[in-house]
Amino acid sequence: MQRVLRNEPAADANLGQQVLTLSSPLEESDDLDPLLERIGDARYVLLGEASHGTHDYYLWRARISRRLIEEKGFRFIAVEGDWPDCYRVNRYVHGELPGQTAEEVLDQYNRWPTWMWANWEIVALAEWLRNHNAGKPEDERVGFYGLDVYSLWESLYQVIGYLRQHYPDSVEAAYQAFRCFEPYAEDPQEYARATLFVPNACRQEVEDLLRTVREKAAATVDENPASLNAIMNAEAVKGAASYYRAMVGGGAESWNLRDRHMTDTLNRLMRFYGPDAKAILWEHNTHIGDARYTDMASQGMFNVGQIVRQEHEADGVVLAGFGSYQGTVVAGRSWDAPMEVMTVPPARAGSWESALHQMDAQNRLLLFHPPVNAGSALAVPRGQRAIGVVYHPEFEFGNYVPTVLPLRYDAFMYLDQTEALHPLHIEPRVGPPELYPWGM
To answer: Does the 1-147+260-440 domain belong in CATH 3.40.1660.10?
Structure first.
């Protein structure tokens, strides 16, 4: 989604004074105390990122998550990843998969962009979660799950395996769905194109499969993790098929289907964990920052942050965004292209990142307390940088989302200089990095 901002506001003394009033230095884990106080008893904490390839965002989200788990009893982390891959990580952090290391488990992420989760930062988090869970009863262990919608075939294979093992008399529904999708050779683009001519291709087979799995697994879902896994995979098959059918039409529908699916998956997890459960989400700013306070709303788009606020405000929702002025990032120059470490140029003049850099060029934690005065400098829409998995630094001017920052988020972490993520599939320059000391 390319955006061009015109007549961008410059940073001014009024904005600078307000930023200093609302912010505090952000250098070590103890500096998160004001954020933890702001979160209070909230049951939903959504942590963003301005790119999918920046080390500092992963590090700070891990620091926040550790404190939420240790100090406030949060029960799981749900991420912008596919259910089957992330459920394998969940099994690892629950003490399953003996003989494997976190590196080996995460190295199995093989769908582009692999670096989003197959990286040393998540290795460190997975090892910490496993150690945290060790010796705890099941009802106190912390989980790790994927919310995304892309795993059509991977999830279908998981469902077939579950029914074959537990309910062989009902596996025909899975085979019917498999036979329907088989002509597309596990290529979502082929399936999407086919729906131009047959709009409801495989829809009935998917509905039958989901109904079968729900009927069989529902009775044992509370005591059998395999039943939860089967239901979530069946929902992922349905969500993915709907997403790919909508994708060929363009516009907002496929985006909205994807974010609705991710929110529905979150809601199912919360019901599974019970009425007192607390959830941490890791997703891009474009998913967790409330879409109503960006130009997404004018395009008919909503997102996870908006839905969670609207549906769960009474339970407490805190949306925390991230941004930086310049640095390096891992991305590709086109879909399925090799990953690269790229230079992120200084933020565009007039953007939030540029304005924050002009304040004092230091990392800062901003906490917002609506309502925001309409005449305030904070109420002026400014571009906020959004880097995706496909990135062209030389055309970076289009990567800015017009944003009213203190309404889009409840908190914002500004990191002036950032560095690229450390993927498992890129040979480390000086060997594997340390599994980052969380308190540094």
So the answer is: yes
HEC per residue, 370-408 = CCCCCCCHHHCCEEEECCCCECCHHHHHHCEEEECHHHH
Work out the average pLDDT over 325-331: 97
Q: Which helix (H) or strand (E) holds 357?
A: helix 352-360
Number of CB atoms found within 10 A of residue 92's CB: 23
- In the predicted structure, residue 380 carries a pLDDT above the cut 60: yes
- d(C-alpha 354, C-alpha 359), whole Å: 9
pLDDT at 103 > cutoff 90: yes
Closest among 433, 396, 440 to 4, alpha carbons compared: 396
Specify burial of residue 275 (Cβ count, 10 A radius: 0-12, 13-18, 19+): exposed
Q: Does this model's pTM top 0.85?
A: yes
- Please give the Cα distance from 135 to 94 (Å, whole number): 10
Residue type, 318: V
Half-sphere exposure of 63 (CA within 13 A, CB side): 22
Dig out the tokens for 33 from the structure: 């105390």
Residue 138 tokens read as 């099941």
User: Tokens 């019970």 correspond to what residue?
Assistant: 274
Tokens standing for 354? 């540029």
Q: In the CATH scheme, what architecture does the domain 149-249 have?
A: Up-down Bundle (1.20)
- Res 8: pLDDT: 59
Tokens representing residue 323 in the block:
């941004």
4: pLDDT strictly greater than 50 = no
Least confident of 4-18, 90-104, 319-333, 400-414: 4-18
Picking from 429, 412, 411, the residue whose alpha carbon sits closest to that of residue 420 is: 429
In this predicted model, what pLDDT tens digit does every residue of 384-409 receive, in sequence order? 999 999 999 999 888 999 999 999 99
Q: Is the predicted pLDDT of residue 427 greater than 70, yes or no?
A: no
Helix (H, G, I), strand (E, B) or coil at 96: coil
Find out whether 365 and 23 touch, Cβ atoms under 8 Å.
yes
Shared fold status for 1-147+260-440 and 149-249:
no
User: Model confidence at 275, in pLDDT bands (50, 70, 90)?
Assistant: very high
Q: How far apart are CA 373 and CA 399, in angstroms?
A: 27
DSSP string, 253-290: HHHHHHHHHHHHHHHHHHHHH-TT--EEEE--HHHHS-
CA distances from 378 to 131, 367, 403 (A): 42, 12, 10
Q: What amino acid occupies position 261?
A: H
